[in-house]
Design brief:
- Belongs to the peptidase S8 family.
- Residues 72-498 form the Peptidase S8/S53 domain.
- It comes from Sungkyunkwania multivorans.
- This is S8 family serine peptidase.
- This protein is α/β, with parallel strands linked by helices and 545 residues long.
- The chain folds into two domains: 12-134 and 287-543, Peptidase S8/S53 domain (Rossmann fold), CATH 3.40.50; 138-265, no CATH class.
- Helices cover 39% and strands 10% of the residues.
- It has 16 helices and 13 strands.
- A seven-stranded parallel sheet has the order 2-3-1-4-5-6-7, with helices on both faces. Strands 8-9 form a two-stranded antiparallel ribbon. It has a two-stranded antiparallel sheet with strand order 10-13.
- Helix 13 (363-375) links the parallel strand 4 and strand 5.
- The radius of gyration is 24 Å and the shape is globular.
- It starts with 11 loop residues before the first helix and ends with a helix.
- Residues 1-20 and 27-40 have low confidence and may be disordered.
């Protein structure tokens, strides 16, 4: 249920500017929520809480409003992520093109250090045209770097001299051990499911030729099967297939990734920079990688999913710049830092980073890059992560970030985004979304979002904070397109203050309290879900000052 509440206190000037276009405020009038059809789910996040009783971002209303107001200018959004399928039919005309480069002449025409960077740059690309697909987790790198310091004959002395660093080392060890246990279980599970996949599909067709049971019903049948272990295994596999919409190819990919998680991501002896041939601990070693930003996008698919959401917000004004730094594992701080600088130097006004990690070896490099973006009026939007954790707690710290050890913001151009759902109920916060009254800035829809897929120019429905983040980035770009005189700090202010606040209790369980509920507005600094229509109204008023 939605109680009566307000978005923010409106100054007199804003009240006057909005005299004919009322800002959206959640109220008792929006309590009558009905079921959402599959068709609605495909675009529910674009809808409006007042007009549709669905907690979307009012994008349809915003586009209708702005189309009658003024013509916008192109805005570049950098997608710092995995590869992007720049040849996808849905992205045609939406990709950034470096006009200062001549295509594939093997000359650095614009003298920026990156040869033939026509659509962007791949910082994990190899000289042979390939790209890295698996890298260490950051805690794996952390343990490798500091193992000798805290395990040798002088370990006690080193611990006493570096107590904070040792605490991080201990935290990394715990994370490594828990992830190793998970990796072994996941490998066994995926191997098991592959083994029974064909048997389960045949049995499924035999037992249920017409009406198919739901995943929940299959799980209940599995639990009740006490006598025939083989049949129980088949029912469990059927349940997993239905629950995750598994194909055999998808299961094979899960098995392959599970293998590589142990062989590469958690392997302290694995050198993921060997083929890149740079020094990951030298920030001045800048010019590496290649210009292939669409390498193996069916496998390295995340960047395409993100780009598809950005392209869905405004096909006329937004140009997408892929900057590749992500593989399976954790990004290198050096790659992230240089990617931010590359995006800024090549004209991006918004940088989308739909990734994060729990440890950082060179946080100072990243912060310097974020400050560089701030000085150049570039907004950086990042995802809060999907652990269901309170990021305000020290043990859940998440990188990249903009706060110091006291929780004070160090820069004004950084937004961290949580994920919301399509029901104005206790699950308005997506269960897996991280949150934090101090560390997370605002929320955006991140449940059942339709976007593009590299698989045969297709589409798919995805969820998570990395999906909520590009919605915010695209709305920011929409503001820049029509109100280019606003600074990055002002665009952040607009997004934070113009959202819709929902005064309802939502699920936020902890290890100690599985039933815990807190007000939605306490999940983030703004307490709100981003709203495109409100943001444009506020931006218009602010741009006149």
């Amino acid at each position: 249920m939605v109680k009566r509440l307000c978005i923010f206190l409106l100054p007199l000037s804003l009240m006057m500017a909005c005299s004919t276009h009322t800002m959206i405020i959640a109220s008792n009038e929006t309590e009558k929520e009905g079921p959402i059809s599959f068709t609605d789910k495909n675009s529910w996040w674009k809808r409006d809480i007042q007009q549709d009783t669905i907690p979307g971002v009012s994008l349809n209303r915003a586009v209708s409003y702005i189309s009658n107001r003024k013509k916008g200018a192109d805005v570049i959004v950098a997608v710092i992520d995995m590869s992007v399928d720049i040849g996808h039919q849905y992205l045609q005309g939406k990709m950034w093109v470096n006009q200062d480069e001549i295509v594939n002449n093997n000359i650095d025409d614009d003298a920026n250090g990156y040869v033939d960077d026509i659509n962007g740059w791949n910082f994990i690309g190899h000289s042979d045209g390939k790209s890295t697909e698996y890298v260490n987790y950051e805690y794996t790198r952390f343990l490798r770097r500091y193992h000798a310091l805290f395990s040798g004959k002088d370990s006690i002395k080193n611990i006493n001299e570096n107590p904070g660093l040792f605490d991080e080392y201990t935290r990394a060890q715990k994370k490594y051990e828990s992830q190793s246990d998970y990796a072994k279980r996941d490998l066994r599970s995926s191997k098991y499911l592959l083994l029974y996949f064909d048997k389960a599909k045949l049995k499924f067709d035999e037992l249920y030729p017409s009406k198919r049971p739901s995943a929940e019903e299959l799980y209940e049948i599995y639990k009740q099967e006490k006598t025939d272990k083989e049949l129980a295994r088949i029912y469990y596999t059927m349940f997993m297939i239905e629950r995750h919409s598994y194909t055999k190819e998808a299961l094979q990919q899960r098995y392959d990734i599970a293998n590589e998680r142990l062989d590469k991501m958690l392997n302290k002896d694995f050198d993921d920079r060997k083929m890149i041939a740079d020094s990951p601990d030298d920030i001045e070693d800048k010019y590496y990688g290649n210009n292939i930003v669409d390498y193996n996008t069916e496998f390295l698919s995340h960047g395409t999913l993100v780009a598809g959401i950005i392209g869905a917000v405004d096909s006329e004004h937004i140009k997408i710049m892929p900057v590749c730094i992500s593989a399976y594992g954790d990004e290198h701080d050096k790659d992230l830092s240089l990617a931010v600088r590359y995006a800024v130097d090549n004209g991006a006004k918004v940088i989308n980073i739909s990734s994060g990690k729990e440890f950082s070896l060179h946080e100072d490099w990243v912060l310097d890059a974020l400050k560089y973006a701030e000085r150049n009026n570039v907004l950086v939007v990042t995802s809060a992560g999907n652990g269901g954790n309170d990021l305000d707690l020290a043990e859940n710290y998440n990188y990249p970030n903009d706060t110091d050890s006291k929780g004070q913001e160090m820069i004004s151009n950084f937004i961290k985004v949580g994920a919301s759902g399509h029901s104005v109920k206790a699950n308005l916060k997506r269960p897996s979304s991280n949150y934090g009254k101090n560390e997370v800035d605002l929320f955006a829809p991140g449940t059942d979002i339709l976007t593009i897929s590299s698989n045969q120019n297709g589409f798919e429905i995805v969820s998570g904070t990395s999906i909520a983040t590009p919605i915010v980035s695209a709305i920011a770009a929409l503001i820049y397109a029509h109100y280019p005189n606003l600074s990055a700090a002002e665009v952040k202010q607009v997004l934070m203050e113009s959202g819709v606040m929902y005064d309802i209790m939502v699920n936020a369980p902890t290890k100690e309290d599985k039933e815990r509920m807190i007000p939605f507005y306490q999940l983030s600094k703004s307490g709100k879900i981003v709203n495109a229509y409100n943001a444009l109204l506020m931006a218009e008023n602010l741009s006149k000052k």
